[in-house]
């Protein structure tokens, strides 16, 4: 029987709050120069919708979103995010290595399933040495529906996973876990929303608590 733990990346393994505002501010400065207008308080709005696929973000942030401006804005944001990751302006949560090592020792495969773009995830994976700890990194870009439930389902089917856990901090993670028969662990971290956490089977305040749950 193949066991697996599926992890969200942003706000679950990676402290995205350390680079989010910086990267978005850098992006907005470029958009100003290109006369692409956006809503008031875009940083606050981005934090509210954290967890939606990247191609959806700019539908919420641009004043008059159209396909070309959405694509341009997202390309610039991804470029800034990757640059800030490579400059080590963000970091993993400090318990990540210890906790993932523990989970591997319990016989679980570990997969990252994220609404982030491939280049962004790849930058985190390589810069923070996740190669020996993670069995696969899967971006929402790999499914046509931009639906995290479909992404998790695709990985379960391709990797022939029988049972496991979904670990994340936002509603899309909990929904993806529930719809795929996984036990859901909600992370009460920076981007978490109390109302959404009610959908999780377990709620943790630190990744360290996974060592008691998954053993």
Question: Quick summary of this structure?
Answer:
The protein is α/β, with parallel strands linked by helices and 215 residues long.
How would you characterize the overall build of this protein?
By secondary structure, this protein is an alpha/beta fold. The chain has two domains: 3-15 and 91-213, Rossmann fold (3-Layer(aba) Sandwich); 17-86. Helix content is 47%, strand content 14%. It has helices at 17-33, 42-48, 54-61, 67-86, 96-105, 118-127, 148-159, 171-179, 194-197, 210-213, and strands at residues 3-7, 108-114, 136-139, 163-168, 183-187, 202-204. A six-stranded parallel beta sheet has the order 3-2-1-4-5-6, with helices on both faces. Helix 8 links the parallel strand 4 and strand 5 (183-187). The chain starts with a strand and ends with a helix. This is HAD hydrolase-like protein. It holds the Pfam family HAD_2. InterPro entries: HAD-like_hydrolase_sf, HAD-like_sf, HAD_2, HAD_sf, PGP-like_dom2.
Annotate the secondary structure layout.
Blueprint: E1 3-7, H1 17-33, H2 42-48, H3 54-61, H4 67-86, H5 96-105, E2 108-114, H6 118-127, E3 136-139, H7 148-159, E4 163-168, H8 171-179, E5 183-187, H9 194-197, E6 202-204, H10 210-213
Parallel strand pairs: 1-2, 1-4, 2-3, 4-5, 5-6
Helix pairs in contact: 1-4, 3-4, 4-6, 7-8
Organism: Salinicoccus hispanicus
Pfam family, one: HAD_2
Keywords: Hydrolase
Q: Tell me which oligomeric state these chains represent.
A: single chain
N-to-C order of helices and strands: EHHHHHEHEHEHEHEH
**Rg result:** 17 Å
Which range does the strand content fall in? Answer: 5-15%
CATH superfamily descriptor of the largest domain = HAD superfamily/HAD-like
Mean pLDDT across residues? 96
Report the total helices: 10
- Count of DSSP E strands? 6
CATH class of the largest domain: Alpha Beta
- Major beta-sheet overview: 6 strands, parallel
Low-confidence stretches: none
Tell me the helix content: 40-55%
Question: Which sequence of strands runs across the widest sheet?
Answer: 3-2-1-4-5-6
Structural class computed from helices and strand pairing: alpha/beta
Give the N-terminus to C-terminus distance in angstroms: 16 Å
CATH hierarchy: architecture of the largest domain: 3-Layer(aba) Sandwich
Estimate the global geometry from the Cα principal axes: globular
């Amino acid at each position: 029987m193949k066991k697996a733990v599926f992890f969200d990346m942003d706000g679950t393994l990676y402290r995205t709050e350390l680079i989010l505002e910086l990267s978005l501010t850098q992006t907005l400065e470029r958009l100003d120069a290109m006369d692409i207008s956006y809503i008031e308080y875009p940083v606050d709005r981005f934090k509210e919708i954290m967890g939606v696929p990247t191609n959806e973000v700019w539908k919420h942030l641009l004043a008059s979103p159209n396909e070309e401006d959405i694509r341009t804005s997202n390309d610039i944001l991804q470029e800034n995010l990757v640059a800030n990751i490579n400059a080590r302006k963000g970091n993993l949560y400090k318990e990540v290595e210890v906790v993932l090592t523990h989970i591997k020792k319990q016989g679980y495969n570990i997969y990252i399933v994220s609404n982030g773009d491939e280049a962004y995830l790849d930058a985190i994976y390589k810069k923070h040495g996740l190669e020996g700890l993670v069995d696969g990194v899967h971006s929402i870009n790999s499914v046509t529906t931009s639906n995290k439930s479909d992404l998790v389902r695709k990985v379960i089917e391709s990797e022939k996973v029988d049972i496991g856990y979904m670990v994340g901090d936002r509603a899309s993670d909990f929904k993806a876990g529930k719809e795929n028969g996984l036990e859901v662990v909600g992370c009460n971290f920076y981007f978490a929303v109390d109302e959404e956490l009610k959908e999780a089977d377990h709620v943790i305040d630190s990744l360290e608590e996974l060592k008691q749950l998954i053993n």
